[in-house]
Specification:
The structure holds two protein chains of two kinds. In chain A, 74% of the residues lie in helices and 1% in strands. Chain A has a two-stranded antiparallel sheet with strand order 1-2. The model of chain A has no long low-confidence stretch (mean pLDDT 88). The two termini of chain B are 32 Å apart. By secondary structure, chain B is of the alpha/beta class. In chain B, strand 7, helix 6 and strand 8 form a beta-alpha-beta unit. In chain B, the strands form two sheets. In chain B, strands 6-7-8-3-9-10 form a six-stranded mixed sheet, with helices on both faces. The chains are: A mainly alpha, B alpha/beta. At the A-B interface, helix 8 and helix 9 of A face helix 2, helix 3 and helix 5 of B.
């Protein structure tokens, strides 16, 4: 299931990531295209969102249909922290992640200790409730207009570009290390056979909540960044469309791989941004491509591109 | 006394799977459980391991009640089980299968499995003879090897009481003999064993005591020889096979 790297050989598995990373670092210096930089920043945000969904839903197997709730919670937390307490963005990021994580622990405790299907329903309901609150409680949340005037980390686009890139790399590495640790193997075991995991002495409810908490922390963290980058949070961040997009990214790239999210998120974000004129048909095309991937390459694109590494 | 079972009953609506069962199990014993299909043997294992909660009755482990304790907490109290159809993590390697079972038992006491989870996984894999295959995906293993992984997973949790649910099912003669030796070795390490089995030759060979369940009730109890010559048991379950055993 995991990544297998053949030592000593310089193949696709080594070449593609290193080349891509070098390219990403050089792009701002070579290309003077602000829109491209903006799209890459967006893609990096979605990589984190998608990879964090993967750890709870891909690795552990608990399908979270309310991932947008934690993304949005991070965003709104950043907004409130600025408007009420004038707290710096650097503090806002971990606090956004923390708020998302804490609320996921409460939701997880209420739903994951019971039967499996509860979780899907509770997460989707949670996201819908937050979305409704964001819209109707306009006095606090700004309603459909959202919260505006949230300060940027830096007004410099290149600065934001490198911040997003750094956050993406660190988050992906952190999530990857988790999946390779004891925790990751316990997640996979629970995914495969919950009964057998219990017989192996694993407190399955506890580990489900842990996975959900980790997943939500990263979603909240990047939600805060998203808010600081755009300078605005709107109820759109909490919408079901975000969750479905993230799911499509994970499945297209390859679920239970973490790195697959990079491919999925980049492809879908680029497609969505560069084919904006195609907006009306975008979801149809995206749906068809996703259907095609799931039917013919159920392992996702990463397992095709890096065939030898993912057997 | 390691395990005491008092008036244990489990009913699924109108079907009584285990009916008012009483049993004492001493440290170091190997208790065989036999009975026809549907006699409640696996239900009994499920009740002791916490996968089912009894309708009435009590289960005491070293005098402490564990009747309603969750499965993973019973594992921490050193009760481990295997499943009739091996439930291994097929996508994980053999090593990971065993390592996962080591992770959640946090304290590392003195004794046979005295050290860290990794060392314990190694000890267990060597004990069951799977050390050479540790890197292989469990899903690629033979039926026999899967049975061994199942036992290894249970051993990795450092049980004092090991519940084996039909470990010999579907194995050929040589494999049964090897596994039988392994079970004896595990018992010699001081682990008490409760074993449900249909392969009578193996069961009679390794058990120090046998109980017979029919329709959830215990109809006989005694040494293998006593049970295999019991008229009630012969008519309810053993049939001709028992006479062969009685003759030796």
């Amino acid at each position: 299931m995991g990544l297998r790297v053949t030592k000593g050989k310089w193949g696709t598995t080594q070449f593609v990531p290193v080349f891509s990373l070098v390219l990403l670092i050089l792009i701002p210096f070579i290309v003077k295209d602000d829109f491209l930089l903006h799209v890459i920043i967006l893609a990096n945000c979605y990589v984190i969102l998608s990879a964090s969904w993967d750890i709870c839903s891909g690795y552990l197997g608990e399908v979270n249909l309310g991932h947008a709730a934690f993304f949005g919670l991070g965003g709104y937390t950043a907004g409130f922290l600025d408007q009420w307490f004038k707290i710096s963005p650097w503090m806002g990021l971990p606090i956004g992640g923390g708020v998302a994580c804490l609320s996921s622990l409460a939701i997880g405790f209420a739903s994951l200790t019971f039967k499996r299907d509860y979780f899907v329903i509770v997460t989707i309901a949670f996201a819908q409730v937050l979305w409704s609150i964001a819209i109707t409680w306009a006095y606090v949340t700004g309603g459909e207009e959202g919260l505006r005037g949230i300060p940027n980390f830096t007004s410099n686009l290149v600065g934001n570009y490198f911040l997003a890139l750094a956050f993406m790399l660190v988050s992906i590495l952190a999530l990857y290390v988790i999946t390779k640790s004891r925790l990751g193997r316990i997640f996979l075991a629970i995914h495969e056979d919950e009964y057998a995991s219990k017989a192996a002495g694993i407190n399955t409810s506890f580990y489900k909540i842990v996975a959900f908490g980790i997943s939500s922390f990263f979603a909240g963290f990047i939600g805060s960044f998203y808010a600081y980058y755009f300078g605005i949070v709107t109820p759109d961040m909490l919408s079901l469309t975000v969750t479905f997009n993230v799911m499509a990214m994970t499945f297209m790239g390859g679920s239970s791989t973490i790195f697959g999210s990079i491919i999925g998120a980049y492809l879908i974000t680029f497609f969505a941004q560069y084919f904006y004129f195609f907006m009306d048909y975008r979801l149809i095309v995206q749906g068809l491509v996703l259907l095609f991937t799931v039917l013919f390459f159920p392992g996702g694109l990463i397992r095709i591109i890096f065939r030898s590494a993912y057997r | 006394m390691l395990l005491e079972i008092l008036g244990l009953t489990k009913a699924f609506k109108s079907l009584v799977a285990v009916n008012n069962l009483n049993l004492n199990l001493g440290q170091g014993e190997v208790l065989g459980i036999i009975g026809p299909n549907g006699a409640g043997k696996t239900t009994f294992i499920d009740l002791i391991s916490g996968f089912l909660i009894p309708t009435s009755g009590k289960i005491l482990l070293k005098g402490e009640e564990i009747t309603k304790l969750k499965p993973h907490l019973r594992v921490k109290r050193r009760i481990s089980r295997t499943f009739q159809i091996a439930r291994v993590f097929r996508k994980l390697s053999v090593w990971d299968n065993v390592a996962v079972a080591c992770f959640d038992t946090r304290e590392y006491e003195q004794g046979f499995f005295s050290t860290s989870p990794e060392t314990r996984a190694e000890e267990v894999l060597k004990l069951v003879g799977l050390w050479e295959q540790k890197g292989q995906k469990a899903g690629e293993l033979t039926h026999y090897a899967l049975k061994k992984v199942e036992i290894a997973k249970a051993l990795a949790t450092r049980p004092e009481l090991l519940l084996l649910d039909e470990p010999f099912a579907g194995l050929v003669l040589d494999e049964i003999n090897n596994l039988m030796e392994m079970v004896k070795k595990i018992n010699q390490m001081g682990i008490t064993i409760m074993i449900v089995e249909h392969v009578m030759r193996a069961l009679m060979n390794i058990s120090s005591r046998v109980i017979v369940l029919v329709y959830g009730e215990k109809i006989a109890e005694g040494t293998p020889v006593q049970v295999s010559t019991d008229e009630k048991v012969i008519s309810a379950y053993l049939g001709k096979e028992a006479k062969l055993f009685a003759r030796g």
